[in-house]
TrEMBL record:
KW Acetylation (keyword) present: no
Transmembrane annotation, as ranges: 33-51, 63-79, 85-104
Protein family according to the UniProt entry: Belongs to the CDP-alcohol phosphatidyltransferase class-I family.
Gene Ontology CC annotation, any one: endoplasmic reticulum membrane
Coiled coil (UniProt feature): none
InterPro entries cross-referenced by the UniProt entry: CHOPT (IPR014472)
Segment forming the signal sequence: 1-18
Keywords: Lipid biosynthesis, Lipid metabolism, Membrane, Phospholipid biosynthesis, Phospholipid metabolism, Signal, Transmembrane, Transmembrane helix
Species of the source: Nannospalax galili (Northern Israeli blind subterranean mole rat)
Protein name stated in the entry: Uncharacterized protein
Signal as UniProt keyword: yes
GO MF term list: ethanolaminephosphotransferase activity
UniProt-listed GO biological process terms: phosphatidylethanolamine biosynthetic process
Length: 127
């Protein structure tokens, strides 16, 4: 049940944000919101797949959920309701960069392990 926790929490937090949004964020920026949720879900899923492939225990809580939790709390408490669009765009950019960073790290680690160049047909010299 551990791998099930992070995706469920992601969808609970995003649903709470949609339903309690003071500026109706889903009506203003539907594509950005769906892109943010999709990128976070893709990151969580990719980390779970890599953990399964490497026979390691997956983390109970994905670290991307912490900034999302903080933004949802700030918006719902009215602290940052006027900055909701800016927070959404910032969160989307951060999630996208984090997902790209994770992908680059995985490719580097795999290419180092298999002693190959990524995206190339030739192998490194064995000298």
């Amino acid at each position: 049940m551990v791998p099930f926790f992070s995706p469920c929490l992601l969808f609970i937090l995003s649903t709470v944000w949609i339903l309690r949004s003071p500026s109706d964020i889903l009506e203003k920026h539907p594509r950005v919101f769906y892109f943010m949720v999709g990128t976070a879900f893709a990151n969580i899923t990719c980390q779970l797949i890599v953990c399964q492939m490497s026979s390691t225990r997956c983390p109970t809580l994905n670290w991307l959920l912490l900034p999302l939790f903080l933004v949802v709390i700030a918006v719902n408490l009215g602290v940052a309701s006027h900055l909701e669009s800016v927070l959404l765009c910032t969160l989307t950019a951060a999630f996208t960069l984090a997902h790209i960073h994770y992908g680059v790290r995985v490719v580097k680690q795999l290419s180092s392990h298999f002693q190959i160049y990524p995206f190339s047909l030739r192998k490194p010299n064995s000298d």
